[in-house]
């Protein structure tokens, strides 16, 4: 599955070179209305205020609503991390004090940073600057799946992909395996959501390399040792991407519904219910909820019917706004803590391909 997924993205990237004027962004005036929105209300649409672009920088995460964490080197170089101010543009970027990072993921309240590359990982306490290395070795080799971004469970723990499984890291650095997958399967994406009725329980959603989406219920257990309560439960097959809403009530899914056809759905996460069809295209990726769950962003590539680009939906009304004509299918869409800004970073934005002369660009979409 992994090679097939990469092949599809390669085909999409080449088509984008031919069909899309790269870097051209919408004004927010174009929108698509969902046929059957979750709630039918008048008004209530996403309005784009402006787009800020930064050259020679690749944004990885938000440190606050006014600062981003970025690198000045291509991702594969795992370079130094910098803090860039969005309100004091003339101030020089300052080094974060961590280097060789492929993934940077702040906790919801920006108390901690999970930092990893393909071999090592650590948790940085932003209050005192103390960095705690995580033991991600089986005694000989690293078991870290560094290409997969993990997920925070509030400010308590971090769920990350390991070799053929999942593990949980506490903020004290203790690592506990919670799942060993069968048949040499690997995790392609992972997200987590707390149980609102029990602070000692949470649910992990993960996509495996056979396109199957599962959920795994986890209990903290005695002595702060998280453990799976049962075997993973299959949610749906033929899934290309997904994202769970912050409150855990809704799942946004990209389902492979035909040859070169993806369909974006919104479904209830807890129990069977009415599904909402949001969009169709050749490829859809990078599902991302705003922290308060009021907006859902994703990228869509649809060469035959048009409509390719970056979309943001108001989840209360179902109104969808095209904010960029460039459907970057490989870059994470990262929301600011207040949910009013969305960051998308690119390598070689002219072609969306890796070259020896790598160019970096970060775009921040600011909403009214």
Placed side by side, the strands forming the largest sheet appear as 1-27-26-25-24
Main sheet overview = 5 strands, antiparallel
Number of strands: 30
CATH H level, superfamily name of the domain at 109-237: YVTN repeat-like/Quinoprotein amine dehydrogenase
The level-1 CATH class of the domain at 109-237? Mainly Beta
Quaternary: single chain
**Structural class, from helix and strand content?**
mainly beta
Provide a descriptive summary of the structure in words:
Belongs to the TolB family. The structure is a single chain. The protein has about 375 residues and is mainly β. About 5% of the residues lie in helices and about 45% in strands. It has 1 helix and 30 strands. The strands form 7 sheets. Strands 1-27-26-25-24 form a 5-stranded antiparallel β-sheet, with helices on one face. Strands 15, 16, 17, 18 and 19 form a 5-stranded antiparallel β-sheet that branches. The longest helix is centred in the first third of the chain and has 18 residues, at about 1-20.
Summarize the structure.
With 368 residues, this protein is mostly beta strands.
Which features characterize this protein?
368 residues, mainly beta, Methylamine Dehydrogenase, Chain H, 1 helix, 30 strands, globular, disordered N terminus
Give the topology, please.
Blueprint: H1 2-19, E1 31-33, E2 48-55, E3 58-64, E4 67-71, E5 82-85, E6 94-95, E7 103-106, E8 112-116, E9 121-125, E10 131-133, E11 151-153, E12 157-162, E13 165-170, E14 175-180, E15 187-195, E16 198-208, E17 213-219, E18 227-228, E19 233-236, E20 239-244, E21 250-258, E22 261-268, E23 276-281, E24 283-289, E25 295-301, E26 309-314, E27 319-324, E28 333-335, E29 341-347, E30 360-367
């Amino acid at each position: 599955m992994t090679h097939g997924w990469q092949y599809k993205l390669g085909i999409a990237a080449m088509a984008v070179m031919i069909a899309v004027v790269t870097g051209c962004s919408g004004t927010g005036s174009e929108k698509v209305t969902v046929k059957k929105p979750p709630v039918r209300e008048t008004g209530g649409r996403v309005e784009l205020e402006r787009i800020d672009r930064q050259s020679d920088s690749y944004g990885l995460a938000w440190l606050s609503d006014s600062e981003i964490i970025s690198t000045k080197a291509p991702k594969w170089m795992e370079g130094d991390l910098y803090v860039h101010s969005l309100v004091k543009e003339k101030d020089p970027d300052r080094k974060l004090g961590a280097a060789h990072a492929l993934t940077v993921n702040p906790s919801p309240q920006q108390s901690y940073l999970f930092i990893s590359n393909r071999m090592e990982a650590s948790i940085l306490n932003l209050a005192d600057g103390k960095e705690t290395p995580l033991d991600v070795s089986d005694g000989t080799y690293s078991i870290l799946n560094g290409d997969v971004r993990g997920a925070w469970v509030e400010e308590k723990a971090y769920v990350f992909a390991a070799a053929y499984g999942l593990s949980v890291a506490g903020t004290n650095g203790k690592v506990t395996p919670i799942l060993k997958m069968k048949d040499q399967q690997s995790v392609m994406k992972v997200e987590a959501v707390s149980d609102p009725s029990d602070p000692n329980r949470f649910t992990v959603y993960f996509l495996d390399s056979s396109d199957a989406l599962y959920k795994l219920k986890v209990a903290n257990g005695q002595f702060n040792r998280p453990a799976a309560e049962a075997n993973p439960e299959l949610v749906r097959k033929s899934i290309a991407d997904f994202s769970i809403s912050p409150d855990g009530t809704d799942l946004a899914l990209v389902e492979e519904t035909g040859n070169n056809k993806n369909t974006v759905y919104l479904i209830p996460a807890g129990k069977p219910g009415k599904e909402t069809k949001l969009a169709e295209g050749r490829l859809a990726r990078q599902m991302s909820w705003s922290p308060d769950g009021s907006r859902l962003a994703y990228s869509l590539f649809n060469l035959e019917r048009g409509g390719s680009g970056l979309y943001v939906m108001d989840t209360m009304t179902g109104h969808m706004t095209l904010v960029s004509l460039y459907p970057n299918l490989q870059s994470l869409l990262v929301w600011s803590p207040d949910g009013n800004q969305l960051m998308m970073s690119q390598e070689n934005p002219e072609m969306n391909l890796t070259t020896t002369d790598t160019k970096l660009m970060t775009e921040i979409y600011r909403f009214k």
